[in-house]
Design brief:
Belongs to the FPG family. Strands 1-6-7-5 form a four-stranded antiparallel sheet. The chain has a four-stranded antiparallel sheet with strand order 2-3-4-8. Strand 2 and strand 3 form a beta hairpin. The protein is 30% helix and 21% strand. By secondary structure, the chain is of the alpha+beta class. The longest helix has 21 residues.
């Protein structure tokens, strides 16, 4: 599933292609949305924003399009009416100066402004980790909040109500960078560990956004890239690297399944 950094990167591409451009044609794959197609024609895209893993596009007709990529959704920005060769199903197409195409996702809605505050997904996001206004102190307060502090960290870090935008690869990388054993709860952590977790939430997520998904130390990643290693090998510290040596200490990375999701950690760097 695309996580917050990937959705923000897609939003940046869409904004560059569509903002202040008039819509010439709109296509919705779902029958209940087709009556809205004509309402967008001739109106401009005014903004493309993200909220956690959700995206909201606003238009000059005071309507909004909400989308969530879910597991397999993918946005393409193409030349006008140019479609990629893919087996994916087209769900939404916005044609202006360029074409913005959303494939495979099924969570798409047309909203009024009054709907945004009560939307079942958007309204749950109290703190978006890619919001530039979010601070380390605010995140530390979330970890200490009694609503959250007795939950295991791997489960908590996937809860969009806790922190919007995190997902499976980010949680493993955050726990590693913070050097925190994965099955601890915030209530089990020292003040130093809470501080490290809070710092890692921001630094790892921001780096992933800025580098298109690299969460490893950038010097290590560049060295390995220069040596000819593929991106999949050096992209992350621990995620998807089970039985491979830790880049920091050389210990074999461990993979576990928690709640049906993969979790990776270094038993030495993250000793309990």
């Amino acid at each position: 599933m695309p996580e917050g950094p990937e959705i923000r990167q897609a939003a940046d591409q869409l904004a560059a292609a569509l903002v202040n451009q008039r819509v010439t044609e709109m296509f919705f794959a779902f029958e209940h949305l087709k009556p809205y197609e004509a309402e967008f024609i001739g109106h401009c895209v005014t903004a493309v924003r993200t909220r956690g893993k959700g995206m909201v596009m606003s238009f000059s007709n005071q309507l909004y399009i909400y989308s969530h990529n879910q597991l397999y959704g993918r946005w393409y920005v193409r030349k006008l009416h140019s479609y990629p060769q893919t087996n994916r199903q087209l769900r939404l197409a916005i044609h202006a100066k360029k074409s913005a195409l959303l494939y495979s996702a099924s969570d798409i809605e047309v909203l009024q402004h009054s709907d945004l505050a009560t939307h079942p997904f958007l309204s749950r996001i109290e703190l978006d980790v890619l919001d530039e206004a979010v601070t380390v102190e605010q995140i530390a307060q979330r970890f200490r909040d009694k609503r959250f502090y007795r939950r295991q960290l791997p489960i908590l870090l996937l809860d969009q109500h806790f922190l919007g935008g995190l997902g499976n690869y980010l949680r493993s990388e955050i726990l590693f960078v913070a050097k925190v054993f994965p099955t601890l709860r915030p209530v089990d952590c020292s003040d130093q560990q809470i501080e490290a977790l809070s710092q890692a939430v921001l630094s790892v997520t921001q780096q992933s956004y800025q580098t298109k998904g690299i969460t490893n130390d950038l010097d290590i990643a560049m060295r390995l890239k220069t040596q000819g290693y593929k991106r999949g090998y050096y992209r992350h510290y621990v995620f998807n690297r089970d039985n491979q040596p830790c880049f920091v200490c050389g210990t074999s990375i461990v993979k576990e399944i928690l709640g049906g999701r993969r979790l990776y950690y270094c038993p030495h760097c993250q000793a309990k």
